[in-house]
Amino acid sequence: MKEYLKERRDLVDLVIEECLNELKYPKVIAEGMKYSVLNGGKRLRPILLLMTLDLLGVQEKKGVPMSVAIEMIHSYSLVHDDLPALDNDDYRRGKFSTHKKFGEAEAILIGDALLTHAFNLITREDIEPSKIVELIKLTSSYAGVNGMIGGQMVDIESEGKEIDLPTLQYIHTHKTGKLLMLPVECACIIAGAGDERREVLKRYAELIGLAFQIKDDILDIEGTFEEIGKPVGSDRELLKSTYPSIFGMEKTKEILDEKVEEAKRLMFDAFGEEAKWHMKLADYIGNRRK
Amino acid sequence: MKEYLKERRDLVDLVIEECLNELKYPKVIAEGMKYSVLNGGKRLRPILLLMTLDLLGVQEKKGVPMSVAIEMIHSYSLVHDDLPALDNDDYRRGKFSTHKKFGEAEAILIGDALLTHAFNLITREDIEPSKIVELIKLTSSYAGVNGMIGGQMVDIESEGKEIDLPTLQYIHTHKTGKLLMLPVECACIIAGAGDERREVLKRYAELIGLAFQIKDDILDIEGTFEEIGKPVGSDRELLKSTYPSIFGMEKTKEILDEKVEEAKRLMFDAFGEEAKWHMKLADYIGNRRK
Hints:
Two copies of one chain form a homodimer.
Chain A: H1 2-21, H2 27-37, H3 44-55, H4 64-81, E1 91-92, E2 95-96, H5 98-102, H6 104-122, H7 129-142, H8 148-158, H9 165-191, H10 195-222, H11 225-228, H12 234-237, H13 243-247, H14 249-271, H15 276-287
Antiparallel strand pairs in A: 1-2
Helix pairs in contact in A: 1-2, 1-3, 2-6, 3-4, 3-9, 4-6, 4-9, 7-9, 8-9, 9-10, 10-14, 10-15, 14-15
């Protein structure tokens, strides 16, 4: 599995670098975009897109610009999240966050530039224009006020408050979930997959998104700086409600296992052994140490 | 002219409100988006798009989502520009700027949401998908690192420095110019206009963009708070290089007149009397008091 992930990650990193090398001026934006995206991320979202295209029998060259676009949107959201006015994180994956490295005004504009450039990349997909339009419609919906940004806003509003489970679930399904559903649904659009397969894949992505977020909450308590690349315990410091703060650690780990198992079962029932990478990915998310 | 502008502005405001009323949750983002866009702006960019479609013989219902999208991008750029880390402006058109009204974290996310939603709106245009893809390609280019964001970055870098004319021109053509070229070129894409007409309209937009920016510099010195809706003299306070600081006021006004006249002549030569609204708009930009 590590080998498989590494191969895809290297491919995605190569294309990201190519796309960003086109950009030269103003230097601080071009360099800041590169710094923010090429920071050793797991590339989970692009890999999920390429893996799903594979499963649906589409050549991998298709979907690469789209997968890079999603990674740019993910990166922009991290750049803006880390800002002093939001999470005020000085570190990201063990390196300075973008505003610590380039300045605050610069980080705001670098994030804006990544988001804008993502939509430019999608237009470069070598598929029918009507499909490109569908990709952009979905991306702008899932990344916007009804998606990722909505989740981020409610997360901020909830700091220092006791929140109920539906609110915590809204945050998770929107802040993290939508941007994990996006790659599998984009793969379905590119492949022309039917509604039934799309629904299964969407639910799978939702489940691994939840698992990912629950695991994040656990790592924030049990991880080390070296593993998670930022100070441990920052959720508690911000008085964030998390799965462990609501359910306790033992129950939280049970819930994590349930989500991973449900995701795997769903995929196996719909695709059989063909979905082995999707099943392994679900395990990987549940077991990851960073 | 005032009548003509008002009619279009009312149409655009109506559609903006419709589009934003769809959005409900999280409330602060939905309300902040509305507050930031529905703030009595001149709607110059949407009007320019609709006016150009008119000139090219296309029914006005086409282009409305696109024109609202451009206005949202314009608005997001103002929301982010006003932030403490950037221009630190507490007022915008005589009202509190978005971060003063809703908070800084909120304003960052409201800006992000406006930019993201703009791309969603473009996908709603009732035209061939291939044209929608072209619109998005152009929009993401002109609003991005090679366009508006680039101009904004160089503007910030230049604060407190003496800059040369090419740098000032880069700032103007990118920070303001690209987002005025965008509506006329989008109209050309929608109308399927030929390269020659597109070049004339593009140059016209570039010229009125320059005129607009020069006039802004003049108003920052000669205007009143009531007229320009923010404190007078903020450029000087930020030690910004401007046309008046480089050329002096008298010469600056001459240059403004030249740009306006050249823009009008270009349009008259290419379209004759048909372009009367475009010519009037150039005059309006040169003479405006706010």
